[in-house]
Amino acid sequence: MKVLHVVSSMNPKYGGVSQAVKSIIRATATFGIHNEIVCLDSHDSPHLIDSDIVIHALNDGKGPWRYNNRLGSWLNANLSYFDVVIMHALWQYPGYAVRKALKSLGSASSGALLPRLFVMPHGMLDPYFQHAPGRKLKALRNQIYWKLIESKLINECEAILFTCQEELSLAAKTFQPYHPKSTAVVGMVVEPPPFYLDRMKDAFENACRGLNNAPYLLFLSRIDEKKGVDLLINAYLNVLKSTEEDGERSALAGLLPKLVIAGPGQDTPFGRKMLAFVEANRELHQMILFPGMLAGDAKWGAFYGADAFILPSHQENFGIAVVEALACGKPVLISDQVNIWREIDEAGGCYVSGDTLEGSEKLLEFWMRSSYKQRKAMGRNALYAYKHYFSMNPTAIKILDTLTRHSSPVVKPQLQNRI
Question: Which of 14, 91, 154, 189 could form a disulfide with 27 if both were Cys (CB 3.0 to 4.6 A apart)?
Answer without folding.
Answer: 189
